Amino acid sequence: MHRPPLTRRGFLLATAGTGAALALTAGPASARPRPFGRYGSPAARRTPKTLYVDPRGRGDFTSVRAAVTAATGSGWTLVLAPGTYRETVAVDATRTDTTWIGASEDPRDTVIVYDNAAGTPKPDGSGTYGTSGSATTTVQADGFTARWITFANDWLRADHPDYTGTQAVALKAQGDRTAFFHCRFLGHQDTLYADTRALDHFARQYYAHCYVEGDVDFVFGRATAVYERCHFRTLVRTDLAAAPYGFVFAPSTAGANPRGYLVTDSRISSEAPDGYYKLARPWVPSSDLTARPMLTVRDTHLGAGIDAVAPYADMRDAYPWQEQRFREYRNTGPGAAVTVPENRPRLTRAEAAAHTRRAYLGDWRPDAR
After folding, report:
1. Which listed residue (109, 115, 215, 217) is catalytic?
2. In the β-sheet with 137-139, what is the strand arrangement from edge to edge?
3. What is the chain's mean pLDDT, rounded?
4. Residue 5: predicted pLDDT
5. Which positions ≥6 away from 369 have C-beta within 8 Å?
6. CA 81 to CA 83: how far, in whole Å?
7. Lower CB density within 10 Å: C or N end of the chain?
8. Looking at the DSSP assignment, which residues form a beta bridge with residue 278?
């Protein structure tokens, strides 16, 4: 039976575990007799540095933020019971080598969500949050790992038609050796901010078996990031009558960084009409006019939602996409059709050998853990 696409708000207002965003079902979180699954409990703690979080009060803490506050220093593990955690969370740079685990091992069950946008006024009257401040979850620390968790921002344009700052980040990651396995990132504009702490900080990030959805620039930033076996999905927009609806990637790679975003063995699908999305546009921010955005998409299925004739566009006229580091290699699907060769910059086979997970991540092997 065909199921129509469900809205972001519709999913996030549902009970954790319904999995509405992917039209899948799972058992209700409240029915689980062992909220922490195979990962122990406060009465049977796996290690002295393992903390348990459960919104129903069966753990050490009922909020992720409280657990992060308690986990000072390095090497902590947070085990999150199924539930919806409506809060903002920040992991500062001192809390290194932290691991978060969704205890059910299904990311649909464990959701961290909030609804700030760039244009949302701060409660203290000091202005608006801005793009970075809108993030539901911010991770600055090196060595962060998350498994089986949904990071979401359910702010909606339709609820705030007067806002000009419509960026609403689900997760902002800035640390080196940052990895996400089987996680979901849900939002609309600027969903996943894969970034670094500073211009000269070449943070390496790895996303494996993850799901990301949005509409405008919804994977963006200046990190060296590898997306392997991930699914990117573009959304319908009811506020626009014509294409383009948006852009999947908007890298802002520092000019001195030899490696930006690598998408490999993945797929891009769409809820929107055919050809209504661009694959990417380069972001050269005012804070770094020397940036040379870099994106390589290889061995990936590009669905019909991607404009095959003109898959790239400029964000600013002064920095045309043709002068940036955009390349493709061995992609498939209707969105990968080469109809205008000059609009599809491709790697040679020899060049492609330098665009692999190992080449981008160097001596860090997150896939071996």
Report:
1. 217
2. 89-91, 137-139, 171-173, 192-194, 216-221, 246-251, 277-280
3. 93
4. 41
5. 145, 179
6. 6
7. N
8. 247
Active site residue 307: no
Using alpha carbons, select from 325, 329, 318, 335 the residue that is nearest to residue 353. Answer: 329
In the predicted structure, residue 41 carries a pLDDT above the cut 60: yes
Q: Does the bond joining 320 to the residue before it have cis omega, within 30 degrees of 0? A: no
Q: What gap in Å lies between CA 330 and CA 30, rounded to an integer?
A: 45
Length of the chain: 369
CA-wise closest residue to 53 among 14, 102, 92: 102
User: What is the rounded CA–CA span in Å between residue 100 and residue 65?
Assistant: 12
Collapsing DSSP to helix, strand or coil, 237 comes out as coil
Does the CA dihedral 190-191-192-196 come out positive or negative? positive
Say how many CA atoms lie within 13 Å of 43 toward its Cβ.
3
Task: Read off the pLDDT of residues 100-150 as tens digits, 9 standing for 90 and up.
Answer: 999 999 999 999 999 999 999 999 999 999 999 999 999 999 999 999 999
Q: Tell me: pLDDT of 247 over 70.
A: yes
Higher-confidence residue: 20 or 127?
A: 127
| Residues β-bridged to residue 128 | 121
Q: What was the pLDDT predicted at 33?
A: 74
Is the model's pLDDT at 340 over the cut of 60? Answer: yes
**Catalytic residue flag (residue 190):** yes
| DSSP H stretches of helix in the chain | 8-12, 64-70, 130-133, 349-352, 357-361
Q: Which of 106, 154, 190, 307 is catalytic?
A: 190
| pLDDT at residue 369, as a whole number | 61
Q: Which of 199, 101, 86, 191 is nearest to 144 (CA)?
A: 101
